[in-house]
Structure formats: C-alpha cells, structure tokens
Amino acid sequence: MIIRHSILFLCLLCAARSWSQADVGYLNGSYVRTAAREIQTDSASFLNESITPFKNSDLAPCIRLKNTALGFKNPKQKGRKLLSVIPLVDLGIQYKGDLSHRNGLGILLEARPIKKSYVRIGGLVNVSNSAGLNPGNINLTDIGESQHLWFMPLTRLAYTPNEVFSFQVGYDKNFIGAGRRSLFLSDYGRPMPFGQIRAEFWNMEYSVNYQFLSENHNGQRKSKYVTSHYLSWNILPWLNFGVFEAVVFQPKDTLLNRGYDVEYLNPFVFYRPQEYSMGSSDNVIIGAALKATFKNTTVYSQVVLDEFLLSEVRARSGWWANKFGAQLGVKGQISDHLTYRIEANLVRPYTFSHLTPLQVYGHRGSALAHPYGSNFAEVLTELNWRKTLNAKLRLRFFASFGVRGTDMDSLNYGSDIYESYINRPNDFGNYIGQGTKQTFFITNTRASYPILKEGRIHAFAELQTQYITMDGFKKLNLLPMIGVRSYLWNDYRNY
C-alpha cells in the first residue's frame, strides 16, 4: 500500500511539472519581492508570510527573514554581487527594577556559488544577563554568576533544480502559517538541524521536513526526531486549504533501540496509520488550515489535533485526552500607511505533551508551536505604521490579552507541555484556564529608525507593559528598552 501511494504521488509530481507556471526562484534574501507586496510592516510579506519561490505557500523557509534587497541574479549580469556580507547587531538595555542587557554581534554570508543554488552561513553571538531577552537562542555556557553566552545560528543551503522541486538543509528555523503565531510550526523556539524537500505542482505545494531535535533528560542530552509534511492547495485563486501532519519519535525507547526510523523517511506516507501499524507510542499531530484573501484583507485559520475521541467531544465531558487547538485571524492593509492584524488562539490542556520530554512536540525545552504551550486562550492585535512606503520612521503597536492555567500542588494541569500527562489530577472536567488561573494583558509600543541599510539595522525605543492577575494578586510591569538591532528575524522577547 505504501509503495502504491508513493508511486502515484511521484507520477503526479512528474505530470504536474508541465503545468507549473511558477518562476524558478531562490530562497530567502535572494528572492526579492515587489514593492507592492512590501507593505508597511516589520513582518515578512504581511499578507503572504512566505519568502519562497512559491506563490501558494504559507511555509516560511527560515526565521521569516526580511527583505534585504540582497538578491542574486545570473552571474553573467554586471553589477551584481555573488557574495554579500551582512553585519548582524542585537544590542539592547531594558529596565525592570534593575538593568538587563544583551550584547549581540554576528555576521551573515549570502552567496550563489552555482546556478540555482543559495547559501547562507552565519549567526549571532550575544552576552546577556537575562534569559527573558533571549527566547529562541541557544544557551552555550554561563559566564560568571549572572552572564550567559547565547547563540543564534542562521545557516541554510538550498538548491532549486527546476520549477517543481527545491531541496534545503541547514541549522535554522521554519514557520508554517499565515498568522503571528502558528499551531503547526513556529519560529519562537530554538533553531535546529533540518532537511527539507519542497515541490510545487499544479495549484499545490508539498513540503516535507526532517528535524533533528534534542532534550535534557535525566541529566543527559538525548536525541529525538520530528518528521512533518504540509500540503498547501489553492482551491480557488483567493482560497487556500492546507493539511499538516507531524510525528515525534525517539531513537531509543523502553522496547528497543531503533535509531532513526526509516519508515518516517518516506515523504508520502501518512504517519498515524504508519505509527499504528508499527505498534509504537510515537506522538502524531495532525492539522488543517484555511486562508481566504480578498484584495487587501486575508482571513486565516488553523486547527490542530493531538488526540481526541469524538464521543467525548460531543458529550462535553472535558476528557483530558481531547487535545486540540484552534486559530482564527484577519490581517490586511488599511492604507499606504497602516497595516493591522487581529488573531485569536486557544489550545486545550495537555495538547502537544506526552509521556516523556523525548516525545513532546518541543525542542530544547521550548514549544515548537505556540510559545504558551497549551491550556490557554489568547487574542492579539498588531498595528504597523509608517508615513510612506520608503519612510524611515516606523511605529508598531502590539497587544495580547487572555487567560492561562498554570500547574499547582505538584500536579500537572496541562500548561507545561514538558510535564508528563500521567501526573494529571482528573480524567474528566478539564478546561482551558484550569489550575492556577492567570489573566494577562501585554502591550508593546515601538519606534524604530534605520541607521544602516545593509542588514536592516535600526535604532529603536520601546515600552512594554505587562498586567497580570493570579489568585487575587495583581502585578504591573513597565519595561522600557532602547537599543540597536538587525531586523532580519522575529523577536519574541517577553511576549
């Protein structure tokens, strides 16, 4: 059966090659979008988050690398650089009763050594006294009592042989979705080694990701793997439907030492039936997405299912294993000066969790999907303004409010995905916000001004507010920050 499915899919790909109308493009910084799509935002291609040679996709190939206008064309063309050297800067000081800082410097090399190829090698190293200022970075080592050395690798190699296929490997991040958040795969967590195959055919795009992850488990660094695939289909010119599936598995469990399971190398197999046929306890996650675009407005959604039983859903019993999440959002352009986003996310308790950290949908202690993990409901808004398309001064306002449930009395109420779901207090009656209920309202207002075009280096000043209530206690934090940074990746500091 698996062989038949694989052969059929390969035939479709080959046949579709003659139908494809997409130009052969190159990834990331070498794929420069038109000014009309570069609307006033710090997010990559606001109405279509992808920076890819594919016009269908919601798959961002890296950390939503912003358009640096450092594209590479045919080497025979005069006046075009085959190698670009981009300085990376991430310097900032934040006040929260005392001073927190991060001092980051790095370099990015972009090149097109051969036709239809793209190479990006580099990263950023910073010294900081605050983990909260470094989400998504890798903690290399401690320096003294309060200083830490962090690293952000940004390495990707890509080859696009024709209009259908693209192959990538790297140590980087990937993102799937049209939202600020993603319930499939986000760029919030830490980067990881990966391999990726992408194919565009007819009105579809198909992507397979092989991710190599690790966790600290019982005082040791343990490996685990995630294989995922995503099919994006333009049903109509304005309507897109996507299907997502991922499986988390470990090379060694209580039964055997199996290494990398070759069954999950097959790019066309469905993981849930495959896992069932193998009799394994691997963690399989499935999801679906829908996106509709009308002129300057995009409405988008995601639904993710970890485990569920339809009869218990209908009974509204609050069964613990009814683990799912949903996203609904709208974004668009109000004028040449202003873009907006409104987005709602909710994830039930215990979603993405499993028996051990080696089967959790996460990497190095951070979630692969939404940064809050599970057991939360959130609504966020985002406004981006600049006077004209080429205006230097930019203003951004971000707000998020909602409810989260945290653990209490040494019991797992379903918020921390790294806690085993065995240690749960109830089988039934579970709900979003259970445990210690926390309500939050977070705002971030930022003004930025470019000081160096190469690498999109901006000086910025911002004020973040955090208003949190929990168990009758109320807390308000005011977090002013100033600094200079390269706006080439999303920054999830404190929110």
Helical content stands at: under 10%
- Compute the separation of the termini in Å: 46 Å
Radius of gyration: 22 Å
In what range is the share of β-strand residues?
Answer: over 45%
Query: Structural class per helix/strand content?
Result: mainly beta
Mean pLDDT across residues: 79
**For the record, what CATH class applies?**
Mainly Beta
Could you say what the CATH topology is called? Porin
What general outline do the C-alpha atoms trace?
Answer: globular
CATH architecture: Beta Barrel
Give the tally of structural domains: 1
Number of helices: 3
Would you identify the regions where 5 or more consecutive residues have pLDDT less than 50?
Answer: 1-56, 61-80, 275-279
Quaternary organization: single chain
Total beta-strand segments: 24
- List the secondary-structure elements in sequence, H or E: HEEEEEEEEEEEEEHEEHEEEEEEEEE
Biggest sheet overview: 18 strands, antiparallel, barrel
Structure report:
With 495 residues, the chain is mainly beta. The protein has one domain (2-79, 155-486): Porin (Beta Barrel). Helices cover 6% and strands 48% of the residues. It has three helices and 24 strands. The protein has helices spanning 2-16, 271-278, 310-315, and strands spanning 59-60, 83-96, 98-111, 117-128, 138-143, 147-153, 155-159, 165-172, 175-176, 192-201, 204-217, 220-236, 239-249, 283-294, 297-307, 323-333, 338-347, 362-363, 366-367, 376-385, 394-406, 436-452, 457-470, 473-486. The chain has an 18-stranded antiparallel β-barrel. The radius of gyration is 22 Å and the shape is globular. The N and C termini lie far apart (46 Å). Residues 1-56, 61-80 and 275-279 have low confidence and may be disordered.
